[in-house]
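Structure ticket #2291
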Amino acid sequence: MTLSKLAQLANVSVSVVSKAFSGREDVSDSMREHVFAVAREHGCFQQFYHARYDKPVIAVIIPEAISKYYIHIIEALKKGMEANGYTMLLSISNFDNTLKNELVRYYTEHSKVDGLVLIDASFDKVIKCDTALVSVCSSKRQMQYGSEIYLEKSYGINAALEYLMARGHRRIALVGEAYTQPKQKKFLMCSSELGLAVDERLIYTSLHRFEEAGKDGVRKLFSGDFPPPSAIFGAYGYITQGILSELEAMGLRVPEDVSVISINNDPYPLHGELDVACIPSDIELLCSKTVEILCQKIGQKSPNLPPLQVEMRSSFYAGNTVSRAAKDIQKQ
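Resolution: structure written out below.
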Protein backbone atom coordinates (compact mmCIF):
# COMPACT_ATOMS: atom_id res chain seq x y z
CA MET A 1 0.00 0.00 0.00
CA THR A 2 1.21 3.52 -0.87
CA LEU A 3 0.10 6.89 0.49
CA SER A 4 -1.33 7.70 -2.97
CA LYS A 5 -3.40 4.53 -3.05
CA LEU A 6 -4.64 5.11 0.52
CA ALA A 7 -5.53 8.73 -0.34
CA GLN A 8 -7.52 7.47 -3.32
CA LEU A 9 -9.37 4.94 -1.16
CA ALA A 10 -10.16 7.62 1.44
CA ASN A 11 -11.14 10.13 -1.26
CA VAL A 12 -8.71 12.75 0.10
CA SER A 13 -5.39 14.21 -1.03
CA VAL A 14 -2.01 12.63 -0.33
CA SER A 15 -1.18 15.70 1.76
CA VAL A 16 -4.14 15.07 4.07
CA VAL A 17 -3.13 11.43 4.56
CA SER A 18 0.46 12.44 5.34
CA LYS A 19 -0.63 15.11 7.83
CA ALA A 20 -3.09 12.73 9.51
CA PHE A 21 -0.41 10.16 10.22
CA SER A 22 2.22 12.71 11.27
CA GLY A 23 -0.10 14.25 13.85
CA ARG A 24 -0.32 17.67 12.23
CA GLU A 25 -2.87 19.95 13.90
CA ASP A 26 -4.12 21.40 10.61
CA VAL A 27 -6.11 18.19 10.01
CA SER A 28 -9.39 17.93 11.92
CA ASP A 29 -9.97 15.08 14.34
CA SER A 30 -12.88 13.79 12.27
CA MET A 31 -10.77 13.76 9.08
CA ARG A 32 -7.90 12.03 10.90
CA GLU A 33 -10.23 9.33 12.21
CA HIS A 34 -11.68 8.89 8.70
CA VAL A 35 -8.22 8.32 7.23
CA PHE A 36 -7.30 5.97 10.08
CA ALA A 37 -10.54 3.99 9.64
CA VAL A 38 -9.84 3.45 5.93
CA ALA A 39 -6.24 2.45 6.71
CA ARG A 40 -7.39 -0.10 9.30
CA GLU A 41 -10.00 -1.44 6.91
CA HIS A 42 -7.31 -2.14 4.31
CA GLY A 43 -4.74 -3.47 6.81
CA CYS A 44 -2.13 -0.74 6.42
CA PHE A 45 -2.60 1.38 9.56
CA GLN A 46 0.61 0.16 11.25
CA GLN A 47 2.52 0.68 8.01
CA PHE A 48 2.02 4.45 8.19
CA TYR A 49 1.35 5.17 11.86
CA HIS A 50 4.57 6.05 13.70
CA ALA A 51 3.42 8.77 16.08
CA ARG A 52 4.98 8.57 19.53
CA TYR A 53 2.82 7.94 22.59
CA ASP A 54 2.18 11.23 24.37
CA LYS A 55 3.20 10.05 27.88
CA PRO A 56 6.49 8.63 29.18
CA VAL A 57 6.19 4.84 29.39
CA ILE A 58 7.86 2.94 32.23
CA ALA A 59 8.20 -0.86 32.16
CA VAL A 60 8.36 -2.69 35.48
CA ILE A 61 9.66 -6.27 35.70
CA ILE A 62 8.78 -8.25 38.83
CA PRO A 63 9.56 -11.91 39.63
CA GLU A 64 5.98 -12.95 40.41
CA ALA A 65 2.51 -11.55 41.05
CA ILE A 66 1.12 -14.07 43.55
CA SER A 67 2.72 -12.46 46.59
CA LYS A 68 1.12 -9.47 48.30
CA TYR A 69 4.63 -8.08 48.75
CA TYR A 70 5.03 -7.62 44.99
CA ILE A 71 1.41 -6.53 44.56
CA HIS A 72 2.10 -3.84 47.16
CA ILE A 73 5.14 -2.72 45.14
CA ILE A 74 3.10 -2.59 41.93
CA GLU A 75 0.41 -0.47 43.58
CA ALA A 76 2.93 1.95 45.11
CA LEU A 77 4.86 2.35 41.83
CA LYS A 78 1.67 2.81 39.82
CA LYS A 79 0.48 5.53 42.19
CA GLY A 80 3.79 7.39 41.97
CA MET A 81 4.05 7.08 38.20
CA GLU A 82 0.49 8.21 37.54
CA ALA A 83 1.09 11.24 39.76
CA ASN A 84 3.95 12.18 37.42
CA GLY A 85 2.00 11.54 34.21
CA TYR A 86 3.70 8.23 33.38
CA THR A 87 2.14 5.08 31.94
CA MET A 88 3.30 1.85 33.58
CA LEU A 89 3.70 -1.52 31.85
CA LEU A 90 4.20 -4.74 33.81
CA SER A 91 5.97 -8.02 33.06
CA ILE A 92 6.79 -11.07 35.18
CA SER A 93 10.15 -12.85 35.02
CA ASN A 94 9.32 -15.95 37.12
CA PHE A 95 12.72 -15.52 38.86
CA ASP A 96 14.35 -16.44 35.52
CA ASN A 97 17.35 -14.29 34.61
CA THR A 98 17.25 -15.38 30.97
CA LEU A 99 13.63 -14.32 30.62
CA LYS A 100 14.37 -11.12 32.54
CA ASN A 101 17.14 -10.18 30.09
CA GLU A 102 14.86 -10.95 27.14
CA LEU A 103 12.24 -8.62 28.61
CA VAL A 104 14.87 -5.91 29.17
CA ARG A 105 15.98 -6.24 25.54
CA TYR A 106 12.40 -6.14 24.28
CA TYR A 107 11.48 -3.04 26.27
CA THR A 108 14.68 -1.13 25.52
CA GLU A 109 15.42 -2.14 21.91
CA HIS A 110 11.98 -2.81 20.43
CA SER A 111 9.35 -1.01 22.52
CA LYS A 112 11.86 1.73 23.39
CA VAL A 113 10.24 2.60 26.70
CA ASP A 114 11.33 5.75 28.52
CA GLY A 115 12.27 3.98 31.75
CA LEU A 116 12.76 0.52 33.20
CA VAL A 117 12.38 -0.70 36.79
CA LEU A 118 13.67 -4.11 37.89
CA ILE A 119 12.31 -5.58 41.12
CA ASP A 120 14.20 -8.70 42.14
CA ALA A 121 17.06 -9.22 44.56
CA SER A 122 18.11 -12.37 42.69
CA PHE A 123 19.08 -10.46 39.53
CA ASP A 124 22.85 -10.67 39.58
CA LYS A 125 23.54 -8.99 36.22
CA VAL A 126 21.60 -6.65 33.97
CA ILE A 127 22.37 -6.34 30.27
CA LYS A 128 23.55 -2.91 29.18
CA CYS A 129 20.90 -0.54 27.92
CA ASP A 130 20.49 3.18 27.24
CA THR A 131 17.04 3.43 28.82
CA ALA A 132 16.74 5.08 32.25
CA LEU A 133 17.17 2.06 34.54
CA VAL A 134 16.42 1.65 38.25
CA SER A 135 17.05 -1.66 39.99
CA VAL A 136 15.42 -2.23 43.38
CA CYS A 137 17.11 -4.97 45.39
CA SER A 138 17.94 -6.10 48.91
CA SER A 139 21.70 -5.56 49.06
CA LYS A 140 24.51 -3.61 47.47
CA ARG A 141 26.04 -4.92 44.23
CA GLN A 142 28.87 -3.87 41.96
CA MET A 143 27.30 -1.65 39.31
CA GLN A 144 28.67 -0.42 36.01
CA TYR A 145 25.62 1.59 34.93
CA GLY A 146 22.07 2.33 35.94
CA SER A 147 20.65 3.33 39.30
CA GLU A 148 20.24 0.97 42.22
CA ILE A 149 18.15 1.33 45.36
CA TYR A 150 18.58 -1.24 48.08
CA LEU A 151 17.04 -1.66 51.51
CA GLU A 152 19.93 -2.93 53.62
CA LYS A 153 18.23 -5.52 55.83
CA SER A 154 21.33 -6.11 57.98
CA TYR A 155 20.55 -3.02 60.07
CA GLY A 156 17.11 -4.32 61.00
CA ILE A 157 18.32 -7.89 61.53
CA ASN A 158 21.15 -6.67 63.73
CA ALA A 159 18.76 -4.55 65.83
CA ALA A 160 16.33 -7.47 66.20
CA LEU A 161 19.11 -9.84 67.27
CA GLU A 162 20.40 -7.35 69.83
CA TYR A 163 16.85 -6.95 71.15
CA LEU A 164 16.46 -10.72 71.51
CA MET A 165 19.86 -11.25 73.08
CA ALA A 166 19.20 -8.52 75.63
CA ARG A 167 16.17 -10.55 76.71
CA GLY A 168 18.09 -13.75 77.19
CA HIS A 169 17.59 -15.48 73.84
CA ARG A 170 20.49 -17.54 72.54
CA ARG A 171 18.81 -20.27 70.47
CA ILE A 172 17.50 -18.18 67.60
CA ALA A 173 16.20 -19.82 64.42
CA LEU A 174 15.50 -18.66 60.87
CA VAL A 175 12.96 -20.27 58.55
CA GLY A 176 13.28 -19.48 54.85
CA GLU A 177 12.97 -21.01 51.40
CA ALA A 178 14.92 -21.20 48.15
CA TYR A 179 14.50 -17.53 47.20
CA THR A 180 15.47 -16.17 50.63
CA GLN A 181 19.10 -17.29 50.71
CA PRO A 182 20.43 -13.68 50.79
CA LYS A 183 18.50 -13.08 54.03
CA GLN A 184 19.97 -16.23 55.51
CA LYS A 185 23.48 -14.98 54.75
CA LYS A 186 22.74 -11.60 56.35
CA PHE A 187 21.31 -13.33 59.41
CA LEU A 188 24.47 -15.42 59.84
CA MET A 189 26.70 -12.39 59.25
CA CYS A 190 24.86 -10.29 61.84
CA SER A 191 24.90 -13.16 64.34
CA SER A 192 28.64 -13.54 63.92
CA GLU A 193 29.25 -9.81 64.36
CA LEU A 194 27.27 -9.87 67.62
CA GLY A 195 29.16 -12.90 68.92
CA LEU A 196 26.08 -15.13 68.81
CA ALA A 197 26.93 -18.78 68.20
CA VAL A 198 24.39 -20.10 65.70
CA ASP A 199 23.34 -23.73 65.78
CA GLU A 200 23.20 -24.61 62.06
CA ARG A 201 20.28 -26.94 62.78
CA LEU A 202 18.21 -23.84 63.56
CA ILE A 203 18.71 -22.42 60.06
CA TYR A 204 16.06 -24.13 58.00
CA THR A 205 15.45 -23.78 54.26
CA SER A 206 12.12 -25.29 53.36
CA LEU A 207 11.33 -26.88 50.02
CA HIS A 208 7.93 -25.21 50.27
CA ARG A 209 6.98 -21.55 49.89
CA PHE A 210 4.69 -19.07 51.64
CA GLU A 211 2.70 -20.24 54.71
CA GLU A 212 3.52 -23.91 54.16
CA ALA A 213 7.24 -23.11 54.41
CA GLY A 214 6.66 -21.57 57.85
CA LYS A 215 4.61 -24.54 59.05
CA ASP A 216 7.21 -26.95 57.69
CA GLY A 217 9.98 -25.04 59.47
CA VAL A 218 8.26 -25.12 62.86
CA ARG A 219 7.60 -28.87 62.57
CA LYS A 220 11.28 -29.41 61.74
CA LEU A 221 12.59 -27.18 64.54
CA PHE A 222 10.41 -28.72 67.24
CA SER A 223 10.60 -32.40 66.28
CA GLY A 224 14.37 -32.91 66.02
CA ASP A 225 16.80 -34.49 68.45
CA PHE A 226 18.19 -31.07 69.38
CA PRO A 227 16.95 -28.31 71.72
CA PRO A 228 14.29 -26.18 70.01
CA PRO A 229 14.65 -22.43 69.51
CA SER A 230 13.28 -19.78 71.86
CA ALA A 231 12.92 -17.28 69.00
CA ILE A 232 12.21 -17.67 65.27
CA PHE A 233 12.73 -15.30 62.34
CA GLY A 234 10.40 -15.74 59.38
CA ALA A 235 12.16 -14.78 56.12
CA TYR A 236 9.05 -12.90 54.93
CA GLY A 237 5.45 -12.23 55.91
CA TYR A 238 3.79 -15.35 54.51
CA ILE A 239 6.38 -17.62 56.15
CA THR A 240 5.83 -15.78 59.43
CA GLN A 241 2.08 -16.39 59.11
CA GLY A 242 2.80 -20.11 58.73
CA ILE A 243 5.13 -20.05 61.75
CA LEU A 244 2.47 -18.40 63.94
CA SER A 245 -0.21 -20.81 62.72
CA GLU A 246 1.85 -23.94 63.36
CA LEU A 247 3.04 -22.79 66.79
CA GLU A 248 -0.60 -22.29 67.76
CA ALA A 249 -1.51 -25.73 66.40
CA MET A 250 1.26 -27.25 68.54
CA GLY A 251 -0.05 -25.51 71.66
CA LEU A 252 2.92 -23.12 71.91
CA ARG A 253 2.18 -19.55 72.91
CA VAL A 254 3.62 -16.42 71.27
CA PRO A 255 5.48 -14.74 72.85
CA GLU A 256 5.32 -16.60 76.17
CA ASP A 257 6.89 -19.82 74.80
CA VAL A 258 8.44 -18.66 71.52
CA SER A 259 9.28 -15.18 70.25
CA VAL A 260 8.59 -14.47 66.55
CA ILE A 261 10.05 -11.83 64.23
CA SER A 262 9.21 -11.30 60.57
CA ILE A 263 11.80 -10.00 58.06
CA ASN A 264 9.01 -8.23 56.18
CA ASN A 265 5.59 -6.98 57.22
CA ASP A 266 3.71 -7.93 54.05
CA PRO A 267 0.98 -9.07 54.01
CA TYR A 268 -0.37 -6.96 56.84
CA PRO A 269 -1.65 -7.77 59.39
CA LEU A 270 0.46 -10.87 59.92
CA HIS A 271 -1.86 -12.04 62.70
CA GLY A 272 -5.39 -11.11 63.63
CA GLU A 273 -4.59 -10.49 67.31
CA LEU A 274 -0.82 -10.25 67.72
CA ASP A 275 1.14 -7.11 66.87
CA VAL A 276 3.97 -9.05 65.23
CA ALA A 277 7.55 -7.87 65.63
CA CYS A 278 9.07 -7.17 62.23
CA ILE A 279 11.71 -5.55 60.08
CA PRO A 280 9.48 -3.30 57.94
CA SER A 281 9.67 -3.60 54.16
CA ASP A 282 9.31 0.21 53.67
CA ILE A 283 7.74 -0.31 50.24
CA GLU A 284 6.21 3.16 49.93
CA LEU A 285 9.56 4.80 50.66
CA LEU A 286 11.42 2.53 48.22
CA CYS A 287 8.90 3.13 45.44
CA SER A 288 8.80 6.88 46.05
CA LYS A 289 12.59 7.03 45.71
CA THR A 290 12.43 4.88 42.57
CA VAL A 291 9.98 7.26 40.88
CA GLU A 292 12.04 10.26 42.01
CA ILE A 293 15.17 8.86 40.35
CA LEU A 294 13.25 7.99 37.17
CA CYS A 295 12.02 11.59 36.97
CA GLN A 296 15.61 12.80 37.24
CA LYS A 297 16.95 10.35 34.64
CA ILE A 298 14.29 10.45 31.93
CA GLY A 299 15.30 12.84 29.18
CA GLN A 300 19.02 12.76 29.92
CA LYS A 301 21.29 11.79 27.03
CA SER A 302 23.12 9.24 29.18
CA PRO A 303 20.60 8.39 31.91
CA ASN A 304 22.63 5.52 33.39
CA LEU A 305 25.91 7.39 33.73
CA PRO A 306 27.39 7.80 36.21
CA PRO A 307 26.08 4.77 38.14
CA LEU A 308 24.01 5.71 41.18
CA GLN A 309 23.58 3.66 44.35
CA VAL A 310 21.11 4.63 47.06
CA GLU A 311 21.19 2.76 50.37
CA MET A 312 18.13 2.77 52.60
CA ARG A 313 18.59 1.33 56.09
CA SER A 314 16.04 -1.06 57.52
CA SER A 315 14.73 -0.71 61.06
CA PHE A 316 13.26 -3.02 63.68
CA TYR A 317 9.77 -2.79 65.16
CA ALA A 318 9.49 -4.77 68.41
CA GLY A 319 5.72 -5.32 68.40
CA ASN A 320 4.47 -7.63 71.14
CA THR A 321 5.71 -11.04 69.95
CA VAL A 322 9.10 -10.88 71.66
CA SER A 323 9.76 -12.00 75.23
CA ARG A 324 12.40 -13.72 77.30
CA ALA A 325 12.13 -17.45 76.90
CA ALA A 326 12.07 -19.56 80.08
CA LYS A 327 14.32 -22.23 78.61
CA ASP A 328 17.12 -19.75 77.90
CA ILE A 329 16.74 -17.98 81.24
CA GLN A 330 17.08 -21.25 83.14
CA LYS A 331 20.36 -22.01 81.36
CA GLN A 332 21.99 -18.78 82.50
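Closing remark: The chain is about 40% helix and 15% strand.
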